[in-house]
């Protein structure tokens, strides 16, 4: 090519290259002009008794239906044990129980039994009872007998081999109901899930049992506390609050089946248990105090949902005099949570073993009251609002449906979305009027995958979270739902749940890991981030942590191709050359984790060098990324 010819072409080539540069995918982050504060409570947890979340889930109890009952939560998991020549029967005795709250019991009638041929009952747990080596299990039961001091042997037995992993003998049974405790200590046994608990006698007698309990070691060793692996997973999510106790579980199908908190406190023997809307009976072992202790274990605060006079089968309580007892229950509940031990309900909490009050800033009035066709929520909310604010003006009161005649402090909005919806609606709050109530996204999820969400769902979730973060001046809190699922057949009522488990192990879904990444890099202020020429299905949010001079840039690439993006960090002063890139990605959107493959999709951390305030970074196909930069 002649020099002259090249000289002619040069301007065109320069223009073309400038044009290409301008069209290259780019991201500009303006660090020195924060647009809003990040809500420090943006990420939290929402739970309820669904999918065996508490019983058979995070609540450590290993005995299923520890209170035998009629209907669901009946005797299905209690079976007769009659070894060899023993003769015995088991039934539900409707006429005797250890307390007014528990008027029934298991009646075991043994007419023939010996040491070699004992008889009694067994419980198969929540899809098995886990046994681990060198572990101490703490148990108790209530019992009485028609025969003086008939010893009861309690053993943990393997379903397949019949091998006894641990056993203890309890003596002192008499004609009156009494509580007994026992410990089961395993030796060098293998880890197994398929075990059952048996209680037997070795001579003829009639023995009644109730509230048979067995706990493994719990998180922070709290007696009657929570399962360790699940609590560790929650702690890793950096949550700031726990919305409790539901969800539909708060409301119940019927008013009588609501979460009636006063029936969930005190000794277990005074808790009558209740049917949950998710078709199994709740032991109420996870009562109000246990919820609060769960918060304390994680160093987070409760977002307390109080029953507000609506249950799901379209039963409601008219505002006015009829609603007053429910309002009083809510006031009492707030006092139980926050009152000093010198108040009526604070004293009750102290009696239950927790003299110190718990922190509380948010109270939610009901749940999803938009489903109440009686149109009574405006009146119900106003009545609760007036009564609570009169005593506790400091509390923020969350409405669960828009209110016509007043602006609630906070409005709870729920989103259950397909991946297409969460991707296309990631900017949902970008243009929301700031003069209305603050927003609590109290339930949200991208529902792809079953029982736990797959990578496609996680991409939708991450895109949605970029939107929540950008708008966290408005969105004070958010919580994914549902949180838990027991993955055994028959345990799940609601597909697509964040964390799955069986009796031995648990795993986080890709959506779980997306939240770990986002909440672990929250920042304190939103900074402007602008994408250009990336094409569709790429999302961003950026925050800085003022105190620690950190910049967190979240980039979601929901496309099937690698995205090379030119990044310009403006106004950061001295940008450190060393940075970290956390990436959660997979080969296909269907990629997922499961109980068998718990670690297929997990975040990977790379140390990267950035050339300066302008650098190029590749983002993998189907990836959720957090750039952790220091300045
Ligand atoms: O998260 C499952 C259910 O979805 C909740 O109980 C209810 O609030 C919502 O409809």
Task: Tell me the layout of helices and strands.
Blueprint: H1 3-23, E1 26-37, E2 43-46, H2 54-58, E3 78-82, E4 87-93, E5 105-112, E6 119-123, E7 136-145, E8 152-158, E9 164-170, E10 178-185, E11 195-201, E12 205-215, H3 228-235, E13 241-244, H4 248-251, E14 274-275, E15 281-282, H5 288-298, E16 301-306, E17 310-311, E18 315-316, H6 324-338, H7 344-351, E19 362-365, H8 377-391, E20 396-399, E21 410-417, H9 419-424, E22 438-446, H10 455-470, E23 475-480, E24 484-486, E25 499-501, E26 506-508, H11 510-520, E27 525-532, E28 538-545, E29 550-557, E30 563-570, E31 578-585, E32 604-609, E33 614-619, E34 623-630
Parallel strand pairs: 1-30, 2-13, 2-23, 13-16, 16-19, 19-20, 20-21, 21-22, 22-23, 24-25
Antiparallel strand pairs: 1-27, 3-6, 4-5, 5-12, 6-11, 7-10, 7-12, 8-9, 8-11, 14-15, 17-18, 25-26, 27-28, 28-29, 29-34, 30-33, 31-32, 31-34
Helix pairs in contact: 6-7, 6-8, 10-11
The chain binds alpha-L-arabinofuranose.
Residues 48, 50, 246-248, 367-368, 443, 481-482, 494 line the site of alpha-L-arabinofuranose.
Describe the structure.
The protein starts with a helix and ends with a strand. Helix 6 (324-338) crosses helix 7 and helix 10 (455-470) runs parallel beside helix 11. The protein has 631 residues and is of the alpha/beta class. The model has no long low-confidence stretch (mean pLDDT 96). Helix content is 19%, strand content 33%. Among the domains are: 18-35 and 523-630, Golgi alpha-mannosidase II (Immunoglobulin-like), CATH 2.60.40; 78-215, Galactose-binding domain-like (Jelly Rolls, Sandwich), CATH 2.60.120.260; 240-401, Glycosidases (TIM Barrel, Alpha-Beta Barrel). A hairpin with a 5-residue loop joins strand 8 (152-158) and strand 9 (164-170). Alpha-L-arabinofuranose is lined by residues 48, 50, 246-248, 367-368, 443, 481-482, 494.
């Amino acid at each position: 090519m002649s020099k002259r010819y090249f000289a002619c072409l040069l301007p065109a080539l320069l223009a073309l290259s400038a044009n290409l540069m301008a069209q290259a995918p780019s991201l500009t982050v303006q660090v020195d002009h924060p647009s809003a504060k990040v809500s420090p409570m943006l990420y939290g947890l929402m739970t309820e008794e669904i999918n065996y979340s508490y019983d058979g889930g995070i609540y450590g109890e290993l005995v299923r239906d520890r209170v035998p009952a009629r209907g669901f939560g009946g005797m299905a998991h209690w079976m007769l044990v009659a070894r060899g020549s023993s003769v015995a029967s088991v039934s539900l005795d409707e006429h005797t129980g250890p307390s007014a709250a528990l008027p029934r019991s298991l009646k075991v009638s043994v007419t023939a039994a010996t040491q070699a041929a004992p008889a009694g009952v067994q419980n198969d747990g929540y899809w098995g009872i886990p046994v681990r080596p060198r572990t101490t299990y703490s148990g108790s039961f209530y019992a009485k007998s028609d025969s003086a001091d008939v010893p009861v042997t309690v053993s943990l037995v393997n379903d397949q081999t019949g091998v006894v992993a641990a056993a203890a003998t309890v003596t002192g049974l008499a004609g009156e109901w009494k509580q007994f405790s026992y410990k089961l200590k395993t030796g060098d046994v293998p880890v197994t899930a398929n075990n059952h608990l048996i209680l037997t006698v070795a001579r003829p007698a009639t023995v009644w049992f109730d509230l048979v309990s067995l706990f493994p070691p719990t998180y922070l060793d709290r007696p009657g506390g929570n399962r360790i692996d699940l609590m560790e997973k929650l702690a890793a999510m950096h949550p700031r609050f726990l919305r409790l106790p539901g969800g539909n579980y708060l409301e119940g199908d019927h008013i009588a089946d609501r979460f009636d908190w006063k029936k969930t406190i005190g000794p277990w023997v005074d808790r009558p248990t209740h049917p949950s809307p998710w078709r199994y009976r709740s032991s109420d072992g996870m009562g109000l105090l246990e919820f609060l202790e769960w918060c304390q274990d994680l160093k987070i605060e409760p977002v307390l949902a109080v029953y507000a006079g609506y249950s799901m089968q379209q039963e409601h309580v008219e505002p006015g005099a009829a609603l007053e007892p429910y309002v009083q229950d809510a006031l009492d509940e707030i006092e139980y949570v926050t009152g000093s031990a010198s108040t009526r309900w604070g004293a009750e909490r102290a009696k239950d073993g927790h003299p110190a009050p718990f922190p509380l800033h948010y109270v939610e009035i009901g749940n999803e009251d938009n489903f109440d066709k009686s149109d009574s929520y405006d009146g119900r909310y106003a009545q609760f609002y007036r009564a609570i604010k009169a005593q506790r003006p400091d509390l923020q009161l969350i409405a669960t449906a828009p209110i016509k005649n007043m602006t609630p402090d906070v409005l709870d909005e729920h989103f259950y979305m397909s991946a297409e919806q969460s991707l296309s609606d990631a900017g949902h709050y970008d243009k929301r009027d700031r003069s209305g109530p603050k927003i609590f996204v109290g339930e949200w999820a991208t529902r792809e995958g079953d029982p736990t969400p797959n990578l496609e769902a996680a991409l939708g979730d991450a895109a949605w979270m970029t939107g929540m973060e950008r708008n966290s001046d408005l969105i004070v809190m958010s919580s994914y739902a549902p949180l838990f699922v027991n993955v055994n057949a028959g345990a799940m009522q609601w597909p697509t749940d964040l964390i799955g488990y069986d009796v031995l192990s648990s795993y986080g879904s890709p959506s779980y890991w997306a939240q770990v990444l986002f909440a672990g890099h929250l920042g304190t202020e939103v900074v402007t981030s602008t994408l250009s020429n990336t094409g569709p299905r790429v999302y961003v949010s950026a925050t800085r942590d003022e105190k620690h001079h950190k910049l967190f840039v979240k980039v979601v690439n929901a496309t099937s191709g690698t995205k090379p993006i030119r990044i310009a960090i403006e106004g950061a002063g001295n940008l450190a050359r060393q940075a970290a890139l956390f990436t959660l990605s997979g080969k296909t959107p269907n990629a997922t984790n499961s109980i068998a493959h718990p670690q297929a999709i997990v975040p990977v951390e790379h140390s990267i060098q950035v050339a300066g305030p302008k650098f190029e970074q590749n983002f993998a196909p189907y990836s959720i990324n957090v750039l952790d930069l220091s300045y």
